[in-house]
């Protein structure tokens, strides 16, 4: 198990947190946006091996993509990238895609409010 | 440090123990020339019947019972199903209320839920923070129409041993049948049905170095039970089906060995258990020990590791050669955290970090050393990834 992009970003442009400890899975995605691209993506996960793998893959898939491309990352594409997940772990792939999209949404909302962060 | 050699260390004996060489040896002829069906009236049948008879005596001896009171089953689960459904159904003319503890194994709990679907009412007795059932709570739950109480002898998840004798006094006073699931304890700690006061007791072979796929239910003479498996008249008409003779013979041998070596085994396991219970929380911070500190199974060391999740720990431990289990939601097929941990008051987030070590006779002190070497880096690594840990770290630093 060697996940990529573990950690936090100081002064992130967007944060997306999903899940809760009751379910046993919680993910937080941090993104840095430059010229409409995801310049840096980091995550933290409280969860099982599948959850960690999903966050790692999602972060790799998202890195360097434009915001539009990254928004297209779904739980299905994440599961596909992992070449399939056991049925009872599919919900983990949902969380990964959700957390990423939440982070992107967070960035877009901040930008809308006027004066995005750099 | 001990070097990068990966050792294979099995500490999941609650799932199953390995099979003793003596047990395997005694089973082999019944997989070979002694293949007969014990219900037959010829020499082949005689040989099988004799083997089964010896095993029945050995099991009876282990638990202080009469051989005629032993019913062979396929597992602890079947024994529990037969006990809960069979005993309750046989009594339903007297009443339709059943009482079980909150921390019973699913084979008891789900059997009780099935009784509910069949028109019975169910009451669950809570446990304290150590998982102990209070006999007075049992008494409070008994009604005029209660026909069965079931409380486990010991809980295999958190290790707590229950006050079975005291609970039996209560059920006797109230004239209610009392079953105890002793799957986690029979063959491991002394169990004597002559002293207990219970009316039925379950056990399983894979808990004390016998084969998998075989168990037994002891039912006190005179207590009626409705069979689950109808058919021929095997097991005194209480459990139909051609018997798994090799497994039954193995179960008997395992029982004999367990009885002969019980004290030595308890000593061996207790030493290992106590080492881990003391040294693991000393090496890794934010670790909680679950279950009763003293009245617990000799081989059970159960913990919750804060801020991280059990299945991830299991995977990383497995890659280091260490086999254990967890009560986390992701570990369970139902994706629910252990009902036992929730019942003893552990918060959900902490329950997800559950780690269960169950020692066996093959484990040594070096195994403990190895665990103490490989687990801390795993915990650190997962904590570095955990948003819960980073929140906690920030909070304790008073913000970054």
What would you say this structure looks like, in words?
The complex is a heterodimer of chains A (118) and B (400). Chain A is an alpha+beta fold and 118 residues long. Helix content of chain A is 42%, strand content 23%. Chain A has one domain (14-111): Sufe protein. Chain: A (Alpha-Beta Complex). Chain A contains four helices and three strands; from the N terminus they run E-E-E-H-H-H-H. A three-stranded antiparallel β-sheet of chain A has the order 1-2-3. In chain A, helix 1 packs across helix 4 (90-112) and helix 3 (75-81) packs across helix 4 (90-112). The model of chain A has no long low-confidence stretch (mean pLDDT 87). With 400 residues, chain B is of the alpha/beta class. Chain B folds into two domains: 9-17 and 262-397, Aspartate Aminotransferase, domain 1 (Alpha-Beta Complex); 21-258, Type I PLP-dependent aspartate aminotransferase-like (Major domain) (Aspartate Aminotransferase, domain 2, 3-Layer(aba) Sandwich), CATH 3.40.640.10. Chain B has helices at residues 21-27, 43-63, 76-90, 106-117, 135-141, 164-174, 193-196, 245-283, 310-319, 339-343, 348-351, 365-385, 387-397; strands spanning 9-10, 70-73, 97-101, 121-125, 146-150, 177-181, 200-204, 215-219, 287-289, 300-305, 322-323, 354-358. In chain B, helix 6 (164-174) links the parallel strand 5 and strand 6 (177-181). The radius of gyration of chain B is 22 Å and the shape is globular. The model of chain B has no long low-confidence stretch (mean pLDDT 96). The A-B interface holds A 1, 3, 6-8, 17, 21-28, 44-52, 88-89, 91 and B 307-312, 315-316, 319, 328-331, 333, 335, 337, 347-349, 352, 384-388, 390.
Distance between the termini of chain A: 33 Å
- Largest beta sheet of chain B: what is the strand line-up? 2-8-7-6-5-3-4
Shape descriptor of chain A reads globular
CATH architecture of the largest domain in chain B: 3-Layer(aba) Sandwich
Structural class assignment of chain A: alpha+beta
| Biggest sheet character of chain A | 3 strands, antiparallel
Radius of gyration of chain A: 13 Å
The helix count of chain B comes to 13
Q: What's the name of the CATH homologous superfamily of the largest domain in chain B?
A: Type I PLP-dependent aspartate aminotransferase-like (Major domain)
Strand content of chain A: 15-25%
The counted number of beta strands of chain A is 3
Radius of gyration of chain B: 22 Å
Largest binding interface between chains: A-B, 26 and 26 residues
Strand-pairing-aware structural class of chain B: alpha/beta
SSE pattern of chain A, N- to C-terminal: EEEHHHH
State the domain count of chain A: 1
């Amino acid at each position: 198990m060697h996940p990529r992009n573990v950690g936090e970003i100081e002064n992130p442009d967007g944060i997306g947190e999903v899940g809760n400890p009751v379910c046993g899975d919680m993910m937080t995605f941090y993104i840095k946006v430059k010229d409409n691209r995801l310049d840096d993506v980091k995550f933290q996960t409280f969860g099982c091996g599948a959850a960690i793998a999903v966050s790692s893959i999602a972060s790799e898939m998202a890195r360097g993509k434009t915001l539009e491309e990254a928004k297209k990352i779904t739980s299905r594409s994440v599961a596909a990238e992992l070449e399939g997940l056991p049925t009872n772990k599919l919900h983990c792939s949902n969380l990964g895609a959700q957390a990423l999209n939440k982070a992107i949404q967070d960035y877009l909302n901040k930008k809308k409010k006027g004066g995005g962060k750099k | 440090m001990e070097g990068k050699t990966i050792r294979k260390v099995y500490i999941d004996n609650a799932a199953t123990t390995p099979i003793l060489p003596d047990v395997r040896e005694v089973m082999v002829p019944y997989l070979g020339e002694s293949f007969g069906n014990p219900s037959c009236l010829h020499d082949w049948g005689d040989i099988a019947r004799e083997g089964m008879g010896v095993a029945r005596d050995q099991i009876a001896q282990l638990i202080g019972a009469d051989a005629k009171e032993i019913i062979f089953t396929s597992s602890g689960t079947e024994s529990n199903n037969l006990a809960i459904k069979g005993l309750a159904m046989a009594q339903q003319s007297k009443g339709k209320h059943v009482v079980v503890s909150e921390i019973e194994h699913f084979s008891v709990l789900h059997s009780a839920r099935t009784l509910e679907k069949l028109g019975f009412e169910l009451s669950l007795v809570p446990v304290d923070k150590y998982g102990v059932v209070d006999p007075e709570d049992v008494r409070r739950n008994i009604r005029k129409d209660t026909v069965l109480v079931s409380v486990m002898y010991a809980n295999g998840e958190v290790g707590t041993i229950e006050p079975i004798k005291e609970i039996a006094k209560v059920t006797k006073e109230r004239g209610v049948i009392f079953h105890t699931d002793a799957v986690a304890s029979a063959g491991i700690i002394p169990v004597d049905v002559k002293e207990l006061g219970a009316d039925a007791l379950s056990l399983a072979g894979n808990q004390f170095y016998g084969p998998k796929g075989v168990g037994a239910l002891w039912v006190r003479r005179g207590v009626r039970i409705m069979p689950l498996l109808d058919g021929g008249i095997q097991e005194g008409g209480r459990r139909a089906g051609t018997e798994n003779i090799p497994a039954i013979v193995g179960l008997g041998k395992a029982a004999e060995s367990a009885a002969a070596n019980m004290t030595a085994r308890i000593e061996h396991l207790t030493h290992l258990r106590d080492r881990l219970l003391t040294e693991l929380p000393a090496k890794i911070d934010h670790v909680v020990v679950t279950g009763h500190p003293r009245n617990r199974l000799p081989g059970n060391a159960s913990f919750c590791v804060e801020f991280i999740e059990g299945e991830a720990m299991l995977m990383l431990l497995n890659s280091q050669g260490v086999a254990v289990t967890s009560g986390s939601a992701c570990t369970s097929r139902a994706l629910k955290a252990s009902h036992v941990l929730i019942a003893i008051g552990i918060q959900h987030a902490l329950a997800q970090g559950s780690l269960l070590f169950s020692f066996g006779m093959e484990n040594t002190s070096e195994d403990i050393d190895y665990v103490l070497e490989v687990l801390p880096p795993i915990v650190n690594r997962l904590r570095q990834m955990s948003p819960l840990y980073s929140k906690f770290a920030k909070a304790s630093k008073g913000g970054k």
